[in-house]
Every structure is written in structure tokens, then in C-alpha cells.
Description:
The chain is α/β, with parallel strands linked by helices and 435 residues long. The chain contains 14 helices and 14 strands. Strand 2 (207-212), helix 9 (224-235) and strand 3 (241-244) form a beta-alpha-beta unit. Helix 2 (28-47) packs parallel to helix 5.
Amino acid sequence: MFGSLAFGLASAAAPVVAQSFNRPRMGVIPLVAVALFALWVVLLRWALPGFGRKLLRVFVLLAAATVLLMLPRVLWRWAGAPPGWVTALHGLFLGPSKVVQVAMLAGIVTAPLWVPLGLWVQRWLRKQPVVPKAETALAKVPFVPRRVVQTVQPLLSRRGLLQTLPWVLPGGAMVAASYGVLYEAGHIALRRVRIAIPGLPKELWGFRIGQVTDIHISRFQTQLRHLERGMELLAGEKLDLLCPTGDLCDEPRLHLDTLRLIKQVPTRLGHIACVGNHELYLADRGTISRAYEKAQIQLLEEESALIGGIRLAGIGFAHSGRVPRLDESLVPGQLESALKDRRQGEPTILLAHHPHVFPHVEGKGVALQLSGHTHGGQVGFLGKSVLEPVYPLIRGHYRGQHDPSQLFVSAGLGHWLQFRFGCPPEVVVIELVPA
Length: 435
């Protein structure tokens, strides 16, 4: 029965999930969450030995509370800013609710491993005869209560070990989610990178560029204080330039505050930016441009500027249609416009939010492209993203296949889902050195 129900829930959830990715509307998120939480709870009840009615009620309550905590983030877009006490109360439970969300997602992703194992263990247990509990050495120890002996005995038996085995992945997901949400997501790293540029003029040796990207500021998401901590790390780095590369804010009311915080970081030559796809959710291009002007941050959109002997070029997020998704067919035209004023011999750095612009950069004489967008996959191992095999150009330093062009992709300072594991939020300092 539970197998049929799980299959039915998965089938019902698939179109909703697909719609949420193809047309990202905040109102769809709670519906997707309900479908996914229902699938998760059904799988736990169906596959895990010992997952009884009491645990079922606990997990149903956790799922319901987590979905309810998503509603303020959705409703403020329609009903306006909520009272301050709502935001404060929501903040108290934001971390635990994210733990449950991440554990649910990890549990569903790893379900092909632990669900068949749990079903096999349950079939094996049903075939085993019921035998009296053997007396253990613990039972001979004086003053040890009998209930302790009865509890320890099955844990030490093969039966107890097999009953525990299917719980390892779902339980491990909860532990990893707690670490990733409550610790690593708030632990900002200052990443220093040296990139060798062929033909770099001697006066530019040691040129230092700060990069901050993908902050996603919102009162129900990444908070301004998180950005403040990141900017404090950059403030003492003696930067020549600071380059925000998009997706800085997810809430229109906080966009200018976000830009002004970035502007406070001292630099020798200024602050130069490009936009990401989330800026396109905020307002029209004119409103966005005026915010950058008020904050005194130069925004490059299909244009360039010669600053300190370096040609800085920037392109907007190439998209067509209502949903801002990368349309690579538009990128060559953007690059042509952005690079038209460049003169021969000028070292050129391109600011482009999406890293998949990089294949179009080869042959254009661009020394380095700075990008974000991916958050590094938010899960990594030994400095690499675990998603690299399925999503190339996701985190770190890359080189062109046919020319000296290089790409650096930052893992970003913020998160759309507050979780990091082996991929901490970061601000970056890039030092240019001769090849």
C-alpha cells in the first residue's frame, strides 16, 4: 500500500516540481514542499524498520511546521512587508526549518539506496523465528537494571544491527543538514586566489580584485548582517577594485542598502559591477540602474571601461521571454558590444554572472572572466563541487581549451537555500600575477 502511495505522490509531485524550475514563482514553493514532504514521510514509514505511528506523527508535525514557515516569505510579496515581530519570530525558527528541508531533500535524493535496503531488512526480519534473548555478560553485572540489559542486547545482535542499517542515510542526512545549516552556512571564508595572466604589464603585477556575488539578501533569507561580515573581511585587503557579479538582493526594498554596504569597502579605483538573473526579478532595468547610480557603483551592461590600465567589460544576463534563463544565442552579440571600445594590448577582464558564457569568450582576447550564479553547488569535497561531473564550470579556476582565456567562478556569499557542506560562503580576493 505504501509503495503505491509513494509512487502516486512522486507522480503527482513531478509536474509541480518541473513547473517550479521552469517558471520560478514564489507561490509555487509551498505546493512543491507539501508534495516533497509527503513523499519523504511516506518513504520513511514504508522503508524504515521501527518507524511506527509515534514517529510518523512527529515527522508529519515537523513537515507541517516547516511548510507554514515558508508562507511569510511568499506572502510579503503580495501583502507588503510584515510587522517586525513576524520577521523576528520567523528568524528564530529559520535555522531549524532549513535543517528539516535539507534533510528531506537529501533523504529523497538518497532514497534509491536506503529504501530497497530497508525493505530487504524488513523481509528478512519477518522470516526470522522469535527466539528468547540470550543472557549477556552485562546481565551478570550487579545493580544493572533489567530494562538496560533488554535494550542493549538487541543492539548488539545481528538483528539489531540490520534494523539500524537502513537508518544510517536518513539519519546521516539530518546530522549533515544540522551542520550545514547551523554552522557552515554562516561561516564566511576569505578566499585568496592568484591568477597568472600572459603578457600582464609590469605595473599591474599584484593588482588585487575583490569579488562578491550571489548574496541573495532578503529579510526571510540571507540577512544584511551576513553581508556586513563578508565586507569586513574584504575591508582590510587593500583592494584595487571590488566587483559585485550579480544576484545581490532578492528584495527590492533592500537593494539600495545592499549596494551601499558593498560601497563602504575601501578600494583604490572603485566598484564595478554586472547584474545577475535575480536583479531581473526585482524591477525594471531603469530602477536597477538608478540604484547603482545612487550607491556610486559603476554598472557595466554590454559596455566596458578602462580602469587602472585594465579593460573592465561587463554584460547583463542574456535572456529572452518572461523567465530570466540564460539564452546563449544572445551572448555573442553582448560580447561584441561590450568589447567594441577595447584597444590592442589592453588586459581585459569580463564580468559575467553566468559561467556558461565562458565558451563564447574564447578567441575574444579576454584574459579572465569573473562569474558566480552556481553557489558552487553548495556541497563540495576537497575544494571541488560534487556536482562538477553533471554541471561543469561550477566552482573555482578554469582555463580555456583553445586559448589563454581563464575563468574564475566564486561559490558566492549567500544562499537561496541556507545550507553549505564542504563549500562555505565566500568573498574572494584575486591577485593578478605574470604568467
